[in-house]
Write a structure and sequence with these properties.
- The chain has 406 residues and is α/β, with parallel strands linked by helices.
- It has a domain of 177 residues: Acetylglutamate kinase-like (Carbamate kinase), CATH 3.40.1160.10.
- The protein has 13 helices and 18 strands.
- Strands 3-6-2-1-9-11-12-10 form an eight-stranded mixed β-sheet, with helices on both faces.
- A hairpin with a 5-residue loop joins strand 7 and strand 8.
- Helix 1 packs across helix 4, helix 8 packs antiparallel against helix 9 and helix 12 crosses helix 13.
- It starts with 6 loop residues before the first strand and ends in a 6-residue tail after the last helix.
- The structure holds adenosine-5'-diphosphate (ADP), aspartic acid and magnesium ion.
Length: 406
């Protein structure tokens, strides 16, 4: 597949800009593409490990703090990588312009750490391109109307890239990363995972929403909305990777197309809590107000009281516990289950094939894997299990659904 427009957004992830050598290699690649006729707009993440380091620093000061200062801190890694990349390009004789979100005008709402892009100054961006310059844009960050720095959530540079591609009406967006394609499972977890050459937006959205970190969920959502095809490919190879495209451009729909996991999962169990839906409404309202995204919820009761369990992302654990403690008395036990993982089988073909859930649970039973929470939809089934069981369970499910590479 070729894009018609020569203007192409190219996003380089953390590993791709993880050292000076790699930044130099990215500069070479961008210039080679330019010589071949492309007009690149580059987006870069922070050097690998850097954002984690910044998050740890913030947590060392106050693990409960979320707000403008947190976003200002964790957004700073991208400032370093785009400046280095710009220097590397200038050294090669190109005119490169490193741009932070406020300089370019990447506007967001004011939901710190999970901000959504509301506008991009596409005229300004295209201005650089038309002058033969290379804009090098900091991923992951935005700016509010009140001039505060925001971030888009971990992995959010993909979303910056797709938002820019949509803003300049590019037909495609290239995401360069440390794997050559989207696979049927995380290849680090399942060595027999196979590459998927073409995926529909719907399938990729499902995988991303279930925690596959290869693409940020919002990036796929935006790509689907604005019909921007995503080409995910390796920074270290020149061949094509995976194209994420509208459903109609795709041929096959296997029953299960991938086994996806999210190791950033924690579970909170509360017992006993006040009877009835009133308490649940209050609890989840209070969590939502604090920006905590609740994933799976289970509820049951017996004569001793009501029991509720739910999962959240590990970065939201402290906020969730704070909210819960404010809402329940000391008679309620709060069990925090950390080091959990959500493991899912995903496939749009599942809707018309009975028996997938049965096979899913039989595999976990054979592997003697305890299940803490379960949820299903038309096109996925997910279970929260202990991280210690993740590798074996993922491999076994991958084999069961015929996904193993020969
Ligand atoms: P980047 O820093 O380039 O954004 P990420 O670490 O965010 O890279 O995403 C790439 C990683 O996603 C891979 O190294 C891989 O371990 C992981 N991953 C998870 N699920 C998949 C999948 N289904 N296919 C490919 N990679 C996956
Ligand atoms: N640097 C940010 C992170 O580590 C954004 C990204 O890599 O996409 O989450
Ligand atoms: Mg990423």
């Amino acid at each position: 597949m070729k894009t018609q427009s020569q203007v192409l957004v190219k996003k380089f992830g953390g590993t791709s800009v993880g050292s000076i050598e790699r930044i130099e290699a990215v500069a070479d690649r961008v210039l080679a593409d330019m010589k071949a006729g492309q007009k690149p707009i580059v987006v870069a993440s922070a050097m690998s490990g850097e954002t984690n380091r910044l998050v740890r620093l913030a947590n060392d000061v106050d693990p409960f703090y979320r707000g403008p200062a947190y976003d200002m801190l964790v957004a700073s890694g991208e400032q370093v990588s785009i400046a280095l990349l710009a220097i590397a390009l200038e050294k090669r004789g190109a005119k490169a312009v490193p741009l932070l979100a406020y300089q370019l005008g990447i506007q967001t709402d004011a939901i710190f750490s999970k901000a959504r892009i509301t506008a991009v100054n596409s005229e300004k961006l295209l201005g650089y391109v038309h002058r033969g310059e290379i804009p090098i844009v900091a991923g992951f960050q935005g700016v509010t109307e009140g001039d505060q720095i925001t971030t888009l959530g971990r992995g959010g540079s993909d979303t910056t890239a797709v938002a820019l591609a949509a803003a300049v009406q590019s037909e495609a967006c290239e995401i360069y990363t440390d794997v050559p394609a989207v696979y049927s499972a995380d290849p680090r977890l399942v060595p027999k995972a196979r590459e998927i050459p073409v995926l529909s937006f719907e399938e990729m959205m499902e995988m991303a929403s279930l925690g596959s970190k290869v693409l940020h969920f919002r990036s796929v959502e935006l790509a689907a909305k604005y019909r921007v095809k995503i080409h995910l490919r390796s920074t270290f190879e020149t061949r094509d990777g995976t194209w994420v495209v509208p459903e109609g451009d795709k041929m096959e729909t296997p029953v299960v197309s991938s086994i996806t996991h999210d190791a950033a999962t924690v579970v909170l169990k509360l017992f006993p809590v006040p009877f009835g839906p009133g308490f649940l409404a209050e609890l989840f309202e209070a969590l939502a107000e604090k920006g905590v995204v609740v994933d799976i919820i289970t509820q049951s009761h017996n004569e001793d009281g009501q029991r509720v369990a739910f999962s959240v992302r590990d970065e939201d654990l402290n906020s969730a516990v704070t909210v819960v403690k404010q809402m329940v008395g000391n008679k309620t036990s709060i069990v925090q289950m950390e080091k959990m993982a959500k493991l899912s089988a995903v496939g749009v073909g599942m809707a018309n094939h009975p028996g997938v859930a049965a096979r899913f649970f039989r595999v976990l039973e054979k592997q003697k894997v305890p299940i803490h929470l379960v949820t299903t939809s038309d096109i996925k089934i997910s279970a929260v299990i202990d991280q210690t069981n993740l590798g074996e369970a993922a491999k076994a499910l991958h084999a069961e659904f015929g996904l193993d590479r020969e």
